[in-house]
Amino acid sequence: MQTIIGSTGEIGKRLAKLLHNDNEKIRLVSRNPFKINDSDELYKANVLNRQEISEAIKGSDTAYLLVGIQYKASVWEKEWLQIINNVITACKTHNTKLVFLDNVYMYGKVDERMNEETPYKPLSRKGKVRAEVADILMKEVGKGNIKAIIARSADFYGPRSLNTFIHPMVFTKLKNGKKANWIGNAKVKHSFTYTPDIAKALSVLGNSEEACNQIWHLPTDGNALTGEEIIKITAEYFNTVPKYSVISKTMMRIAGLFSSVARESVEMMYQCEHDYLFDSTKFENKFFKPTLYREGLKDIAGYLK
């Protein structure tokens, strides 16, 4: 049995299909789960409830933690530590391997490429939370209390990844013949990880004993593009003009007076003002190569058309 905690998001749905194709028994867990495959087992649970999440994981060989919570620092500080401790306790109780989908907030501003050895130097409240969560999990691994994998990704992009900033601000705008928006500096390079690659990589890691008890950067095209280049290439696929405007930190602060997401994004603006370069060489050398940006952007344009 393989269990996906947070199964209703884009990554969870893709992962469920891949595991099903590999003839795995699948349990989908969320507050309101729904079937992706006819044979899926559904379990309704709240990750903040230790007993519910323990019952959800019971009988599982592998559990994938893919949950997303409200994008608010105060919520993250309260809930993420509770979530990871609940899931770790459940996995220890039921001898279940854990695969945790993580981000790069804990690294802070990095002048070179981020890899699995990059030290944690968070610049944000949310980054401090992610550093603490990762430390808690890897300490349990170090003590031999749990088998676990941290699968770390750059920002998402993909055909159905509607909750990313790049989708509504770039892809949807250009599809409709409008001027795109870019946050921060459109002339610095920014890594993005393709969502179909994320799901495929999770299925590979979750079923590889060699991958256990390590941190893995998920496959991401190493030839990062600037925002301007992404807009230009995408505009070509939509046969439109690659016009764009830039949203500065000041503008984001003003938007934050009316939008909680904008307000919470201000502390992460450093990621968009400087080169944001993600390295997945370790994964690529062991498993498979990432989708190239031109191919991914072409797929997104084709899907939206």
Summarize this structure as a short list of keywords or feature phrases.
single chain, 305 residues, alpha/beta, Rossmann fold, UDP-galactose 4-epimerase, domain 1, 2 domains, 7-stranded parallel beta sheet, two-stranded parallel sheet, 12 helices, 13 strands, globular
Structural description of this entry:
The chain is α/β, with parallel strands linked by helices and 305 residues long. The chain has two domains: 2-155 and 192-217, Rossmann fold; 159-191 and 222-304, UDP-galactose 4-epimerase, domain 1. Helix content is 42%, strand content 16%. The chain is built from twelve helices and 13 strands. It has helices at residues 10-21, 50-57, 73-94, 125-142, 166-175, 195-206, 227-237, 249-255, 260-265, 270-273, 281-286, 293-304, and strands spanning 2-5, 26-30, 41-44, 62-65, 97-102, 148-152, 155-157, 180-183, 189-190, 192-194, 214-217, 225-226, 244-247. It has a seven-stranded parallel beta sheet, with helices on both faces. A two-stranded parallel ribbon has the order 7-10. A two-stranded parallel ribbon has the order 8-13. Helix 1 links the parallel strand 1 and strand 2 (26-30). Helix 2 (50-57) packs across helix 3, helix 3 runs parallel beside helix 4 (125-142) and helix 7 (227-237) packs across helix 12 (293-304). The radius of gyration is 19 Å and the shape is globular. The two termini are 38 Å apart. The mean pLDDT is 95.
